[in-house]
Amino acid sequence: MEEVARKLSAEGIQKRVLSAGRGDAPTFPDGTKVVFHYRTSLLDGTVLDDSRTMGGRSKPMELILGKKFKLPVWEHVVTTMREGEIAEFTCDTKHTALYPLVSQSLRNISVGKDPLEGQRHCCGIAQIHSHHSLGHQDLDSLQAHSQPLVFTLELLQVLPPGSFRLDTWAMTDEEKLEAVPQMHEEGNVLYKKGDIAAAAEKYHNAIACLKNMQMKERPGDEGWIRLDHMITPLLLNYCQCKLLQGQYYEVLDHCSSILFKYEDNVKAYYKRGKAHAAVWNEVEARADFTKVAELDPSLASSVARELRALEERIREKQKEEKSRYKNLFASTPTAASSVSPAAR
């Protein structure tokens, strides 16, 4: 333990064990998955991030060692810990310069945003030395004035290579391309079983893999287009799930984005038409269904069925509204009858 502390100290890292772990010190070959909670603080005790409360929920950090995480010091210090151990690491500025970018990504993830939002077209070092805002005042301040940080880690689990399935973010591009067809098929199986939420998640994860790769390509280039052609059918499957879940405006957004690029995509028109119909956009729904019949005459009967259903829903809605207004006026006293006898 003292030897580890001396080595860390020589590297500008001070370790203080707050709670001893259990068992023997594990080995950490490349490919090991470590799961840990973290709290990041300034030297004055100001807390920047806490995985137990970030985004309003408790979600531990997961790292695959050897995957070149943006903050190498985390990979380094966690390998000095035992499972169950809680330790505090005070790290010199040379280890913390990239923390603002890492924190921005983690905060994005915690609220369901793209982890790379705000980091496109600019490498990490360039951003650190630029005036680019990260969208958080504390991170902007830290980016402008790098300083030592205190990381309090609790090592929850150490999983050896091969004992777990890689998360998509930890995959290489080659691994992602191999995983996407499998996730697509798993989504199809779940959809057929009626597990719509799980199917949507599979499609979403497959799309995320391809989107991550697509961000490395120039829009319109051959590689970008090839990936986009892989994304489109997955996105249409995802939209089908969202239709069944009643997430109509999300379907409108995704289908419109597809049609902006591919004006003859029949499925996108069809699903967008159903979403428009569901939110009472009658004119837009009719236009989309008409386009479906024009592009694929074999779907004319399906389109006619959807239009009949739309007309029936509109008639029912008008009938309900008419009845509601009739009852409203029937229950409202007339001006004459509302005047008291004394006032007459």
TrEMBL record:
<keyword id="KW-0413">Isomerase</keyword>
<keyword id="KW-0802">TPR repeat</keyword>
<dbReference type="InterPro" id="IPR056277">
    <property type="entry name" value="PPIase_AIP"/>
</dbReference>
<protein>
    <recommendedName>
        <fullName>peptidylprolyl isomerase</fullName>
        <ecNumber>5.2.1.8</ecNumber>
    </recommendedName>
</protein>
<feature type="domain" description="PPIase FKBP-type">
    <location>
        <begin position="31"/>
        <end position="85"/>
    </location>
</feature>
<comment type="subunit">
    <text>Interacts with RET in the pituitary gland; this interaction prevents the formation of the AIP-survivin complex.</text>
</comment>
<dbReference type="Pfam" id="PF23322">
    <property type="entry name" value="PPIase_AIP"/>
</dbReference>
<dbReference type="InterPro" id="IPR046357">
    <property type="entry name" value="PPIase_dom_sf"/>
</dbReference>
<dbReference type="InterPro" id="IPR039663">
    <property type="entry name" value="AIP/AIPL1/TTC9"/>
</dbReference>
<keyword id="KW-0597">Phosphoprotein</keyword>
<dbReference type="GO" id="GO:0003755">
    <property type="term" value="F:peptidyl-prolyl cis-trans isomerase activity"/>
</dbReference>
<dbReference type="InterPro" id="IPR001179">
    <property type="entry name" value="PPIase_FKBP_dom"/>
</dbReference>
<keyword id="KW-0963">Cytoplasm</keyword>
<keyword id="KW-0677">Repeat</keyword>
<keyword id="KW-0697">Rotamase</keyword>
<comment type="function">
    <text>May play a positive role in AHR-mediated (aromatic hydrocarbon receptor) signaling, possibly by influencing its receptivity for ligand and/or its nuclear targeting.</text>
</comment>
<feature type="region of interest" description="Disordered">
    <location>
        <begin position="316"/>
        <end position="344"/>
    </location>
</feature>
<dbReference type="InterPro" id="IPR011990">
    <property type="entry name" value="TPR-like_helical_dom_sf"/>
</dbReference>
<dbReference type="GO" id="GO:0005737">
    <property type="term" value="C:cytoplasm"/>
</dbReference>
<feature type="compositionally biased region" description="Low complexity">
    <location>
        <begin position="330"/>
        <end position="344"/>
    </location>
</feature>
<dbReference type="InterPro" id="IPR019734">
    <property type="entry name" value="TPR_rpt"/>
</dbReference>
<feature type="repeat" description="TPR">
    <location>
        <begin position="266"/>
        <end position="299"/>
    </location>
</feature>
